[in-house]
TrEMBL record:
One of its GO terms (molecular function) is metal ion binding. It comes from the Bacteria. SUPFAM superfamilies: DinB/YfiT-like putative metalloenzymes. Gene3D superfamilies: dinb family like domain. Residues 12-139 form the Mycothiol-dependent maleylpyruvate isomerase metal-binding domain. This is TIGR03086 family protein.
Amino acid sequence: MHIDVDLRTFHRTAVQTSADLVAAVTVEDLGRASPCGAWSLGELLIHMTAQHRGFAAAAQGRGADPEAWDPAAVTDAVMRDPAGAYAATAAEVMRAFAAEEALAATFTIPEFGPGAQVPGAQAIGFHLVDYVVHGWDVARSLDRPYVIADDVVRATLPIALAVPDGDFRDADGSPFGRAVAVSEPASDLDRLLSHLGRSPAWPGR
């Protein structure tokens, strides 16, 4: 999907919303179930924290460094201080994306394939989708409401709907599960979540 608009204001709101939610997470919460596959909340936060580091490195021309993306590099910090570890990397990625050159940069993102390179504006859009969804994941894990600005959801929805569905989503390592049915009328957020494999009613209440 080609993205040529500046999504950074929406991105900053999404990431800050997720950080505000994670600020309430304690070590005792890390074993909670999450809507993100079989991951616990702790495993989800390790992923989210590592991805912030990786995308920040990619924005700065260091995305080819495997260590920048390595979940093991953040695991101990997240397990000791989930709120603090997450806040630090959330701030890191927001600073990196705010740089004047970020939109025009080329991001190296190894998880898209060996040596894969993505235009900066598109990479920021992908990260935006992830953190609108993962913010909801955290909120549901904590049994808290997910409150995010409507304009952020509207900006994110077309990017999310452009993600193809199919058998490949059943594979290990797929970032999203298969799309699920959603009751109509559905909100934009429910449409976004269901297309990316979440049941808006998780965990069934």
